[in-house]
Specification:
Layout: H1 12-15, E1 27-28, H2 39-43, H3 52-59, E2 73-81, E3 84-91, E4 97-101, H4 113-125, H5 129-138, H6 147-179, E5 185-193, E6 203-210, E7 217-224, H7 228-232, H8 236-239, H9 241-250, H10 264-274, H11 276-280, E8 283-289, H12 293-301, E9 311-315, H13 316-333, H14 353-369, H15 374-389, H16 406-412, H17 424-443, E10 446-447, H18 461-468, H19 476-487
Parallel strand pairs: 1-4, 5-8, 8-9, 9-10
Antiparallel strand pairs: 2-3, 3-4, 5-6, 6-7
Helix pairs in contact: 10-12, 13-14, 13-17, 14-15, 15-17
The structure holds zinc ion (3 copies).
Residues 64, 66-67, 69, 91, 93-94, 96 line the site of one zinc ion.
């Protein structure tokens, strides 16, 4: 096997150390960073971790391009920069030197691609410089670049990421406008999160997404209850008050939030609503939240636009999840209670966790499949309860679907169907959940993230009366909502 001759892309100074090679004869196995984008090249565009001895063994199976004997020689590291290495392989027979550059250079910089990739990986995995060092140590790889340069590279990456992020979000806004028929008014979904669990998180993040057929992020923001730079400069406050003042006025302070961590989400979402006009020249007219009533209330109480009353739309996933939370709550409350049939609430053949999750899925499915037909949505939501609550004496499958209801299928085939009545005592308990959820489902606009704006369904005055007349515990819904809001323990939006 003969190695391919190619010109080195390294500066002359690298080769000057080697007396027996001139630049033209230097072989390099390096792919140039800006090399052609042939398919074949793309296929080879990846890294491989190889043990050094394997590489030497490979070389020993090839012929030296200079003396034509089997290569046998030594390898020496000429330069190392983080994970990047420049290695020289010298043929001991003719002293010809072959160069290997383990990673290409990023154009117009002195940085090596592999080191930038390492830092991106570190950021994505939440590893600091020290963490990356341990990780590489465990793999018997060389350590990363020194901490100072590591931080500088993070800034380098940050600049690129910010630029790409802004371009991507602007494109997503325009895409949503086109899909909405050119109107510069959008329905957006939003959610916030804390990087750490618990109400004491000092940082919060939030994002707004479009509600197009392919939802994309339109805007993001963050809150911080502390500034590491301010904390670092605290010693200056008394030692050198003048310098401290100059620092205070000139640094890019990260402290931008003073309230409770629980209130971060509503303020962050509000901030993004307020800047939609100056930033994108658009208005967000409807908001799909995660069921946290505080956000919508805040948006209404502090209007971002003088002429828009922001509508609230609930997100199917969170909506269904809330039903699961309520079933679980009832299950927990009744864990040791013996019901009127002499059995417990939960257990085999009764209300199990798996059964509760199934109900959540059925409910979300009912919403998604009937989002454009309010009456059907109401019936299908109730069908979940009625179907499972049916007995041989009192079958209630009138709102069921032949596709999944075994009773309707049996009846259609002229067969007799036997109900398992052992579950009904559980479902008496569950009825309360079902009722309030069904009421909520039919009186709130609901969206699923894959639907477009036209599909959002809003209840009008007439059908509201029809639907709510038999929902005797409709009032319960509001208090249930409050309980739910108090229940969540680690995210501002109540997501889990
Ligand atoms: Zn040789
Ligand atoms: Zn600061
Ligand atoms: Zn049925």
């Amino acid at each position: 096997m003969r190695r391919i001759r190619s010109k080195s892309v390294e500066p002359k100074t690298v080769d000057s150390s080697s007396a027996s090679s001139d630049e033209d004869s230097v072989m390099s196995v390096q792919n140039q960073f800006t090399s052609s984008t042939d398919n074949a090249d793309d296929m080879m565009n990846f890294y491989l971790i190889i043990h050094m001895q394997s590489l030497i063994l490979l070389l020993k199976q090839t012929l030296c391009s200079e003396c034509n004997n089997y290569w046998n020689g030594s390898a020496s590291i000429k330069q190392r920069d983080g994970l990047y290495m420049h290695i020289e392989f010298m043929c001991s027979n003719c002293r010809f030197i072959t160069h290997l550059h383990s990673s290409p250079q990023i154009p117009n910089t002195r940085r090596r691609e592999i080191n930038i990739r390492l830092e991106i990986g570190g950021i994505l995995c939440g590893l600091s410089h020290g963490g990356v060092m341990k990780f590489l140590g465990a793999l018997n790889l060389p350590p990363p670049v020194q901490e100072q340069r590591y931080s500088e590279a993070q800034q380098f990456i940050w600049n690129y990421v910010t630029k790409a992020q802004e371009e991507s979000m602007t494109a997503a806004v325009e895409e949503a406008i086109v899909e909405g028929g050119g109107m510069r008014e959008l329905t957006v979904s939003g959610d916030g999160a804390w990087p750490t669990r618990g109400y004491s998180s000092v940082h919060g993040i939030a994002a707004l997404c479009s509600t197009t057929s392919h939802p994309k992020v339109l805007d993001v923001t963050w809150s911080s209850k502390k500034c590491s730079k301010c904390q670092g400069a605290e010693s200056l406050r008394y030692a050198n008050p003048d310098l401290f003042l100059i620092f205070q006025e000139n640094h890019d302070c990260q402290l931008n939030y003073a309230g409770s961590s629980g209130g971060m989400e509503k303020e962050m979402i509000h901030e993004m609503f307020c800047r939609s006009l100056p930033k994108y020249n658009i208005k967000y007219t409807s908001y799909i939240g995660d069921g946290d009533a505080k956000v919508h209330k805040y948006l209404v109480d502090n209007p971002s636009y003088s002429d828009v009353n922001i509508k609230k739309i609930e997100d199917t996933n969170h909506f269904a999840k809330r039903m699961l939370t309520r079933i679980m709550k009832i299950k927990k409350e009744n864990a040791n209670k013996i019901l009127s049939d002499g059995k417990r609430f939960s257990g085999k053949g009764r209300m199990t966790d798996a059964q509760a999750v199934k109900f959540k899925i059925y409910f979300a499915k009912a919403i998604r499949e009937n989002k454009t037909d309010l009456n059907k949505l109401y019936q299908r939501s109730w069908a979940i309860f009625k179907h499972h609550y049916s007995t041989d004496e009192q079958p209630m499958h009138e709102w069921c679907d032949l596709r999944w209801c075994k009773y309707l299928q049996a009846t259609a085939n002229g067969e007799k169907f036997n109900h398992h009545s052992q579950k009904i005592f559980c479902f008496k308990k569950k009825k309360r959940v079902k009722t309030s959820q069904a009421a909520a489902a039919t009186t709130t606009s609901i969206s699923s993230s894959e639907s477009d704006n036209e599909n959002f369904h809003t209840v009008n005055e007439e059908n509201f009366d029809d639907i709510s007349h038999d929902l005797t515990i409709f009032e319960q819904m509001e208090s249930d909502q409050d309980e739910y809001d108090d229940n969540n323990d680690y995210e501002p939006g109540g997501d889990d």
